[in-house]
Design brief:
binds 5'-deoxyadenosine, binds iron/sulfur cluster, Rossmann fold, 13 helices, six-stranded parallel beta sheet, 21 strands, 473 residues, Transcription Regulator spoIIAA, five-stranded mixed β-barrel, alpha/beta
Length: 473
């Protein structure tokens, strides 16, 4: 089944189906991967990271075992991201590398999944120019992976299983989590905001919230397994529940998750439009809801915000921002900003800088607008020069880094709580983890503390991370 852009753009009032038995591996498929290895390479957002955790569990159900080095694996899956052109180009680069690998080892299986697979233009290009690939499957077809693989092995032909539907909620896909201490939990899938630059509503389908009972069951199960932190995931988590018949929303879900007693609750991503006062009150009330909010701004210009279809003004954003800072003690706030949206002027850009100067963010992800096929913004005529866009990005990053460094400086000599996750990438003798406010800290501490939340005195502050020493209680 091939992806279809027109279908992906559609939204109906059809009820979302909750399916609890879609995923199955018949006995005869459980041995298909015995003695063989797999590698899943993930691009893009946390949603994709979590999908890869599902894919890994499915492959292990089929007998495959994990191989760290991509080139050595018998089955290689690229879980792709379509958000900007550079993500897209990276994947096509990798597809080229895979061609050489397949020439050396023709028996390996190479597949593409994730958001790029959902794009009609990408799949057509693969069919035309990259026939060395073996499977292509979409974000709605993960549960069917065992049968897609079976078909590929039997037919020896490229299998494409990409449905461009609004989507269901599938509740029984297994998961092999990357961490023993912190876990991603999907609370909703898809997005109905249709910001004019964004491809996600087409690659991930319509907004579908999971029922609260399934989410709480997952949290309670994680607590039993010793997990310390959960991150509630969705493209726009603040709209959680709006599509359900039940009368509950994100503030209720957050409160119920906090009440389970799990030590840390996080959530991403918040759209300013759906951020309610009830949500802010719940975040402020519970100590185990982390004082860290990612609040994408995208632009500070009301003219551009309107063209982006963001549904808020600069002033409304600032009001929300100030409310959060006022009510949630020591709250860290980060953001996403796009520069060079079609016909963004210097004045528009100055408005963005003005918001950054007012908000003094803890950090930000900044991007140059990238036209995505099928989105309204990609059809807008754009006279802004690339050189101007590059200059704006540079200027914006300088400002963002200045504030992020300033925000971090406040931590110097303070004692903060850090969940120690593993040995530091930079120094084998150090451990690393995150503060409640999501700052990365390299900590001098004994390895036996990995998996625990400990007190750390910050000794040195840099732009991207901090160093500290564990303080024994
Ligand atoms: N071009 C540039 N940046 C984009 N983003 C989403 N779509 C695009 C695009 N077409 C950015 C937004 C979003 C983040 C995940 O990626 O800032 O918040
Ligand atoms: Fe994309 Fe906007 Fe939905 Fe975020 S809220 S996923 S930017 S359409």
């Amino acid at each position: 089944m091939l992806p279809n852009l027109k279908e992906a753009q559609k939204r109906t009032k059809n009820k979302v189906k909750i399916i609890t038995d879609a995923y199955k591996v018949p006995e005869y498929l459980k041995k298909i991967g015995e003695g063989k290895t797999y590698h899943v390479k993930t691009y893009g957002c946390q949603m994709n990271e979590h999908d890869s955790e599902n894919i890994k569990a499915i492959l292990e159900d089929m007998g495959y075992s994990y191989e760290e080095e991509i080139e050595k694996a018998d089955l290689i899956l690229l879980n792709t991201c379509a958000i900007r052109e550079n993500a897209h180009n990276k994947v096509f680069g990798m597809i080229g590398r895979m061609k050489h690998l397949k020439e050396e080892r023709p028996d390996i299986i190479v597949g593409i999944c994730g958001c790029m697979a959902q794009e009609e233009s990408v799949t057509l290009e693969i069919m035309k120019k990259h026939k060395h690939l073996d499977i292509v499957f979409g974000t709605h077809n993960i549960y069917a992976l065992p049968f897609i693989l079976e078909n590929r092995i039997k037919s020896k032909q490229l299998q494409i299983e990409v449905e461009s539907k609004e989507g269901d909620v599938i509740e029984n896909i297994p998961v092999k989590r990357d961490s023993k201490y912190k876990a991603w939990i999907n609370i909703m899938y898809g997005c109905d905001k249709f910001c004019t630059y964004c491809i996600v509503p087409y690659t991930r389908g319509k907004q579908r919230s999971r029922k609260m009972e399934y989410i709480l069951e997952e949290v309670n199960d994680l607590i039993k397994k010793g997990y310390k932190e959960v991150t509630l995931l969705g493209q726009n988590v603040n709209a959680y529940g709006k599509d359900l018949e039940e009368d509950y929303g994100m503030s209720n879900l957050l409160e119920e998750v906090a009440k389970t007693g799990i030590e840390r609750v996080r959530f991403v991503t918040s759209h300013p439009w759906d951020f309610t006062d009830e949500m802010i009150d719940v975040i402020a009330k519970y100590d185990n809801i982390m004082p860290y909010i990612h609040l994408p701004l995208q632009s500070g210009s009301n003219r551009i915000l309107k063209l982006m279809g963001r549904r808020y003004t600069k002033e409304e954003y600032l009001t929300l921002y100030n409310k959060l800072k006022e009510k949630v003690k020591n709250c860290a706030i980060t953001t996403d900003i796009i520069v060079g949206f079609p016909n963004e002027t210097e004045e528009d850009f100055k408005e963005t800088l003005d918001v950054v100067n007012k908000c003094k963010y803890d950090g930000a992800f900044t991007f140059i607008f990238s036209p995505r096929i099928g989105t309204p913004a990609a059809r807008m005529e754009d006279l802004t020069k690339l050189e101007d866009k590059n200059n704006r990005l540079y200027e914006l990053n300088e400002l963002i880094n200045k504030y992020s460094n300033k925000a971090n400086q406040k931590y110097k000599d303070k004692v903060v709580k850090v969940l120690l996750e593993n040995t530091s990438e930079k120094d084998e003798n150090m451990l690393s983890g995150y503060t409640e406010t999501m700052k990365l800290v390299n900590v001098k501490a004994d390895k036996k503390y990995i998996g625990q939340i400990v007190d750390v005195k910050i000794t040195d502050v840099k732009t991207w991370s901090m160093d500290g020493i564990m303080v024994e209680k």
